[in-house]
Amino acid sequence: MLNTPLEQPEFYQKNRQILMDMLPENSMVIVPSGVEKIRNRDVEFPFRAESDFIYLTGFGEPDSVLVLLKKAKTVASHLFVRAKDPEQETWQGRRLGVEAAPSTLQLDCAHEIDMLDDEILGLLDNMESVYVSFSQSLDFLGTVHQWIYALKEQGRKGIEAPKQVCDLDVHLHEMRVIKSDTEIKRLRKAATISVQGHLAAMKSVQSSVFEFQVQADLEAEFLRLGSPRVAFNSIVASGENACILHYTENRSEIKKGDLVLVDAGAEWQGYAGDITTTFPASGFFSAEQAQLYSLVLAAQQAAIDAIKPKATYDIVHQASIKVLTQGLLDLGLLQGDLNTVLKDEGYKRFFMHGTGHWLGMDVHDVGAYKQNQKWRTFKPGMVVTVEPGLYVSGEHQDVDKKWHNIGIRIEDDILVTSIGHEVLTTGLPRTVKEIETWMRQDKEQVTIEVS
357 an active-site residue? Predict the structure, then answer.
């Protein structure tokens, strides 16, 4: 995350208040931003703060820790940050600093991160419970236990250490599942930028020789439109590579008869877009490619149509696999009757992943999919992806070779509304005819511009 704080500090202040309202008296929340990590030698990986930390601060510097306290029905916010250091800032970039943090981020007070061990002991005194993310802050849990142990050692002085360390995820991650109006606006923007990047990729493939060239044009469009980074590592997979679900090498030559699968999304103000498009490198689908593509698209539409308030989460997957399985039976790639193949999960030979996931600050966003061992129901404000696929590789030796090396996935981002759903990722050609027409028209435009 950029060192510059994100817009609307009141949004993050409200998030903090809502979270603390859910917790009992004498509670403390500790959320670290994370630390920079070395890629090799003295080169760091690009730093992006933990999403929980951004959600509560709008801030993204490394080596920062947010501490929230609830005592006597009052919430106090403390932020530990790196001190201003002209020499370090000359080399590594500007820091917000202790003095500017409270007013900029609408926090009560700030401290130098080097003072964390000393200051935290006083803040922990007489707190009943400490809340830390068990999934995001595992490395930090040991430090928390060391602080509690240090306080217990001072019991004779009348100091009381917290009695329990609790999982913050139960509250904070469930809070993040339902998106506010501010978050929905940011997700819409991330979706809009992501769409434009995918259109750039479809245009790029007509003049590109290698997958990485398509990736370059895709991500350049993200940057051009203001996205500071990709939401996840971009997948540009042609031909047989599209049958590898998380293929990110993006180094192969694109052959004229290949389908190209692009799974990529832009990040905007901390929120992710996530789209998958599949299109022919030549601009035209083969008969087999068109049949499987249309089947996946029909499965996706059936899944999207199922999304509405009070519908259970699993209905999306059930809708997609029913359409896919029937289609595979009709095309002869599977044998048997529909109910038996569904029961035996025979479709998993060609569709081995789920149909979607939560989307938000993380591309695979936080939040439980089941509650009390039952699939949870959709509520307005939830955002989910829908991404059925089919993957017929050369390893399927019992399948006619005409189907080999066809990998297809179609993915869009869906907001649950009060009356149904809204597709956030609109503006892409999706049917076989729409894709072929769009690529033909775009090719003609490119030819005219070049001449």
Answer: yes
